[in-house]
Write a structure and sequence with these properties.
The chain is mainly α. The chain folds into 2 domains: 36 residues, no CATH class; 198 residues, no CATH class. Helices cover 17% and strands 4% of the residues. It is built from 9 helices and 4 strands; from the N terminus they run H-H-H-E-H-E-H-H-E-H-E-H-H. The strands form 2 sheets. A two-stranded antiparallel ribbon has the order 1-2.
């Protein structure tokens, strides 16, 4: 008899958790564990080890996951695994990693996104409650989008799915996050602000009312001259811009977007703000103003 093993499908594009790097047994256990430490009658507790056979205190979690989902993600993405991007304290890559870092994985904070919540909450300038987990934003099985981002991170499907387009000089191969994850490797083209506003969907109303900074607005006039000066400096110091017509920075189509001022995962500053000189918010604002 021939047995077929069915593997989850994923896009040919995307980053990690795809192709040969998408290994079912990294996250799921088939019969409790390969070492049969869990029989179902006498559950055991084993310290999580990335890639190893470990279980929660009461055996496999839902969908035979080896641990609770966020705990499972952080087990590899906490810097302990060289082939996985570090999202907790990624100082080993550059001083200013593109995604920033989660300042809290155990309790909600005012510093940006965190993974400590257990109930849906209404995001700042959001209209609907959202439960924030790793899987809210990323597809663990991979897809064809940048960083495996889900088209609708809110899960609400209230708006059209957003596609984030980013050019990368070095692409992910499942083993090179130190080259891929740095800000200097990325040229943002389109879609990021629309993706963020799937959760922060009241932001456009605030912009229209004149109470919040516009996004996806081309840098022009005196601001463009100021930006051109800053754009010539070390990319770990300058803020990021979106460049929809070409990947060149600086160029005439450069525009501010959400990640010009905020870190996606978080920063040591309130509201996940970027302080370009690591000291003051003015150093960020002054790049255009």
């Amino acid at each position: 008899m021939t047995m077929a093993i069915l593997l989850p499908m994923c896009g040919e594009a995307g980053n990690w958790h795809r192709g040969e790097s998408l290994v079912c047994s990294d996250c799921h256990t088939m019969h409790g564990s390969q070492s049969h430490a869990w029989s179902g009658a006498s559950p055991v507790s084993v310290t999580p080890v990335p890639g190893g056979d470990w279980l929660t205190a009461t055996g496999p979690g839902s969908k035979l996951l080896k641990a609770a989902p966020d705990q499972l993600c952080i087990a590899c993405h906490d810097g302990s695994t060289s082939t996985a991007p570090d999202v907790v304290a990624p100082v080993g890559y550059v001083a200013d990693p593109a995604g920033g870092a989660f300042e809290s994985t155990s309790a909600p904070s005012a510093l940006g996104h965190d993974l400590g919540g257990t109930s849906p909450v209404v995001p700042p300038l959001g209209k609907a409650a959202v439960l924030l987990t790793c899987r809210s934003c990323h597809d663990p099985h991979g897809n064809g989008n940048f960083r495996n981002l889900r088209p609708n991170p809110s899960g609400s499907q209230l708006g059209a799915g957003a596609t984030v387009v980013v050019d990368e000089a070095v692409v992910a191969n499942g083993s090179n996050p130190a080259q891929v994850y740095v800000a200097s490797n990325l040229a943002y083209r389109s879609g990021t602000s629309a993706w963020c506003m799937d959760c922060h969907d009241a932001y456009p109303d605030a912009v229209a009312a004149g109470t919040k900074h516009p996004t996806d607005r081309r840098i022009e006039g005196a601001a463009q001259a100021s930006w051109a000066v800053w754009a010539a400096v070390d990319p770990t110091v300058r803020v990021r811009v979106e460049s929809p017509a070409d990947p060149q920075v600086p160029s005439a189509d450069d525009q501010v977007f959400c990640l010009s001022c905020h870190k996606a995962h978080g920063s040591p500053n309130a509201d996940a703000l970027i302080y370009a000189d690591r000291v003051t918010m003015d150093s960020t604002c002054a790049q255009c103003h």
